[in-house]
Write a structure and sequence with these properties.
Strand order of the largest sheet: 3-2-1-4-5
Distance between the termini: 21 Å
Radius of gyration: 16 Å
CATH class: Alpha Beta
CATH superfamily: HUPs
Number of helices: 5
Structural class: alpha/beta
Order of helices and strands: EHEHEHEHHE
Helix content: 40-55%
Strand content: 15-25%
């Protein structure tokens, strides 16, 4: 069936539930997991504000984002390890998370992308778009959407 899952995570509550679901699924089918956290260069809240940032501030924001990514990945790996599911984690910088997800799945030889859906609807979904939807459209491998 499936032997290697890519599980994109962002640290949200929905993402944590997907981690738990992916670990249970991987344990059932005997698969291993690669967790992926894709972060943007700048926090979304900073984009479009017109604020000028000096180099030191940008460096600090980048460091904080990397530390947050490492924490998110460590938490997911702990869930998998406690269930006896082999796993690894990778943090990447990419302003287009859906592209990072597809690229990571191909690079790591994954045969299934197991990801959460945040379930945004209406204006929020229209404006923010859906990374899950973009992965579903562009991924050359199966995608399991966990809700």
């Amino acid at each position: 069936m499936y032997s290697h899952l890519l599980v994109p995570i962002d640290g949200s509550e929905v993402s944590l539930r997907a981690v738990q679901g992916a670990v249970a699924f991987a344990k059932e089918v005997g698969a291993r997991i690669t967790f992926l956290n894709a972060r943007s260069i700048l926090p979304v809240s900073m984009v479009g504000t017109g604020t000028m940032l000096d180099g030191g501030t940008l460096e600090h924001l980048s460091l904080v984002a990397r530390e947050n990514s490492e924490r998110i990945l460590a938490e997911a790996e702990a869930v998998a390890n406690s269930a006896g599911v082999p796993c690894s984690g990778e943090g990447v910088v990419n302003d287009l998370p859906h592209e990072a997800i597809i690229e990571a799945a191909q690079t790591h030889g994954c045969d299934l992308i197991f990801m959460a859906s945040h379930g945004r609807r209406g204006l929020s979904g229209l404006l923010l778009g859906s990374q899950t939807q973009r992965v579903l459209i562009h991924a050359p491998l199966p995608v399991l959407v966990f809700r």
